User: What shape does this take?
Amino acid sequence: MKTLCLYFQVHQPLRFKRYRFFNIGNDHYYYDDYSNESIIQKVAEKCYLPANNILLELLKKYKGQFKIAFSVSGVALDQFETYVPEVIHSFQKLAKTGYVEFLAETNAHSLVSLSDKEEFMQQVKLHEEKIQKYFNKTPSVFRNTELIYSDEIGEIVAEMGYDGMLTEGAKHILGWKSPNFIYCNAINPKLKLLLKNFKLSDDIAFRFSNQSWEEWPLTVEKFISWIQNMPQKEEIINLFMDYETFGEHQWADTGIFEFLKALPGFALQQNFQFGTPSEVIKNHQPVSAIHVPYPISWADEERDLTAWLGNAMQNEAFEKLYELSEKIKLCKDENLLKDWEYLQTSDHLYYMCTKFFSDGEVHSYFNPYESPYDAFINYMNVLSDFSIRLDAAIPETERDKKVAFLSSKVKEQEALIKKYKEEIELIKKQKPKPKRKTSSISKKPATRNQKLSSSIK
Assistant: This one.
């Protein structure tokens, strides 16, 4: 019996406002609140809320026969709580059915697994706490940002106690092997790996509305028939995609919601079953280890890191960011720590990608910048201001101490100036005291005789 494993990524970045060179040192708020609020409200209306309603009906209808999995980034959860709390409530309804699994990931949806093991583990722990807080679930399966994976990353994930991990079924890694089996980490075989079937997943996520595609229109019957025609021994079909596929990337008028509604029923009729990642891992044994010496991802044709670290701008931004890692570990300032988290979100590097000139519209979707260079300059300006603030908060060298001392003195002077201005304004507003009235009768000067008379007395 073939098992379908449906997994959806839910993520929305916090976009930065236009932050210019002259803002450095003067403006410490980096976010474009208007864009962030309007975009997440639009996506919630078009995707999250209607799709969650459909899934809730399906989960209740099939009572355990239909199951799904999500990973929701911490950045997305923060925005849901601020702008659209009804989205969190709708996910909580799904969680309460008992048929939905929530996976762990990096809280900031970052690339930290490529740079700093300690920070990586800290972010995963923070995300776990949020999943527990919102959905009362403790994840047992891990999904790294953009399905990034390597042997070394997998070893760290196993060390953290996870049973399994999701990644891409990349051709250059699998070779002749099929993604439709369970594999294991090459260093620590205890970590089981579920590999995305990228062809079938992308048929839904990218090609569904493409009328020039030879298989258009894609129907549930056609899609399930492709799976039925696979070799019988290939029992696990991992369909991994962005949740925004439903209603946002593929609009409602394409029929994507009707496809989602019909999929479980028809699959079950054809003797398929659905399983969450943890169930698939529990019920199947790995056929072999896969060796991934260099990181892979689910992005672009190359399935590598070039979407985020493919040019000099991206690499410089990445290096400058994580040069601050040691210093940030000494920081206790909550505002700085929160900004540090959002600075790491992988989307900032994605906006700097120059591949969109050859890879089509995917890289320009929701990109708030006119060019990769604009994205780089804006990000580096923000990072420069953040670095100055961090230096002031955590001085290390004599130079840093002097900068911190001078900064504190400037702040003290500014506080005094503000205080004196307020006092001056207060004095100006006070009612002036009335002047003492003098007698209108003028006194005549005393004569010489009067002076003498006075002195005799």
